[in-house]
């Protein structure tokens, strides 16, 4: 695998600097543009390699032929060729925020969501200070056997986690927020200043006043002959009361709908006319625009069954367009599905 990645990605891989060590400072983000960073457990070559194991017939054991050895003689799970590709993103096993590796510029801690929730409750300030300077990845806990998701937004907001891994099997709320966070970027988004300042400069939240005037939709579920019973759901994803009051992640991190919800009336049509119906979100306080989201879903109201999602789109509040807008809708594969929503948006952000 290491050979294949080197062959195909060579122009984009980060070369190992001369005299590179665990104390080498991180480069600027600008110097890493159009580069691929590989996060992998790093295995140092042993100063005294283990003797090659052999079987009774004197043949070399294939399982130990190219095995690399970690310090203290412990055999690594990652071969050196692959491990050495993790130049600035070396995965280290997490024990505590005080372990020696926690000060290595190149380390990355990967924690299940339950561990992040525990640290938020017990060591919130220490966690935020760590994540202001170093990378952390949160991933769904193993008990999510149905491939459900954690809600990435509060992990970004409350824990300062940079990488929130998700299950991609379904286009749920978590996937929509993740899509909005990185839409139109090269995969990197700069945190608000207070989140990458280890002095913990206070966040300067805003008060949001937002009105969405629904005009019409087009080509909704157009592949079906019968017209759907369409209505529009608007959900605003901002800090919950628990986040504001205690700095904790609500609902045990589970993915859910927005904290503020509005819904339109129904129209039986592939091209419904909503006649300028207004959905308003007024006086929403303590909004961090870069980490807050507006989500639209076109729904089919089906009697005695779960309503069907016909299309969706999602925006970060700081990039939410104002005025008359034709918003392309996406399908379950997160790609445009040919339908669109015509809206008129009035948005105002004021200092709280």
TrEMBL record:
The main enzyme category here is hydrolase
The record's Pfam families line, in alphabetical order, gives: C2, PI-PLC-Y
The EC designation for this entry is 3.1.4.11
GO MF terms, alphabetically ordered: phosphatidylinositol-4,5-bisphosphate phospholipase C activity
Q: Which reaction does it catalyse?
A: a 1,2-diacyl-sn-glycero-3-phospho-(1D-myo-inositol-4,5-bisphosphate) + H2O = 1D-myo-inositol 1,4,5-trisphosphate + a 1,2-diacyl-sn-glycerol + H(+)
Biased composition (Basic and acidic residues) is annotated at 43-53, 63-72, 243-273
Q: Which domain of life is it from?
A: Eukaryota
Per the UniProt entry, what are the Gene Ontology biological process annotations, in alphabetical order? lipid catabolic process; phosphatidylinositol-mediated signaling; release of sequestered calcium ion into cytosol
* UniProt entry keywords in alphabetical sequence: Hydrolase, Lipid degradation, Lipid metabolism
The residue ranges of the PI-PLC Y-box domain are 82-192
What name goes with this protein? Phosphoinositide phospholipase C
Which portions of the sequence form the region Disordered? 43-72, 243-276
């Amino acid at each position: 695998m290491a050979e294949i990645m080197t062959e195909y990605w060579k122009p984009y891989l980060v070369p190992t600097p001369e005299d590179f060590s665990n104390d080498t400072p991180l480069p600027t983000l600008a110097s890493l543009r159009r580069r691929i960073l590989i996060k992998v457990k790093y295995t140092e070559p042993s100063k005294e390699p283990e003797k090659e194991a052999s079987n009774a017939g004197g043949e070399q054991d294939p399982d130990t032929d190219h095995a690399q050895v970690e310090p203290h003689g412990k055999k690594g799970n990652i071969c050196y060729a692959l491990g050495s590709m993790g130049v600035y993103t070396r995965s280290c096993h997490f024990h505590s925020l005080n372990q020696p590796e926690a000060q290595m510029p190149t380390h990355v801690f990967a924690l299940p969501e339950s561990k992040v929730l525990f640290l938020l409750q017990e060591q919130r300030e220490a966690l935020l200070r760590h994540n202001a300077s170093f990378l952390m990845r949160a991933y769904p806990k193993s008990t999510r056997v149905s491939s459900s998701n954690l809600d990435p937004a509060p992990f970004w907001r409350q824990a300062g986690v940079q990488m929130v891994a998700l299950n991609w099997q379904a286009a749920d709320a978590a996937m929509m927020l993740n899509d909005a966070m990185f839409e139109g970027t090269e995969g990197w988004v700069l945190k608000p200043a207070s989140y990458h300042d280890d002095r913990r400069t206070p966040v300067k939240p805003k008060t949001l006043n937002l009105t969405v005037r629904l005009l019409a939709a087009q080509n909704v579920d157009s592949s079906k002959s019968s017209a759907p019973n369409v209505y529009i759901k608007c959900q605003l994803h901002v800090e919950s009361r628990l986040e504001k009051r205690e700095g904790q992640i609500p609902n045990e991190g589970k993915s859910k709908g927005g904290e503020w919800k509005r819904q339109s009336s129904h129209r039986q049509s592939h091209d419904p006319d909503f006649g300028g119906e207004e959905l308003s979100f007024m006086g929403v306080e303590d909004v961090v625009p870069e980490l807050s989201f507006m989500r639209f879903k076109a729904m089919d109201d089906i009697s005695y069954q779960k309503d069907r999602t016909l299309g969706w789109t999602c925006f970060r509040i700081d990039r939410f367009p104002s005025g008359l807008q034709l918003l392309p809708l996406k399908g379950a594969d997160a790609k445009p599905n040919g339908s669109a929503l015509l809206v008129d948006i009035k948005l105002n952000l004021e200092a709280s």
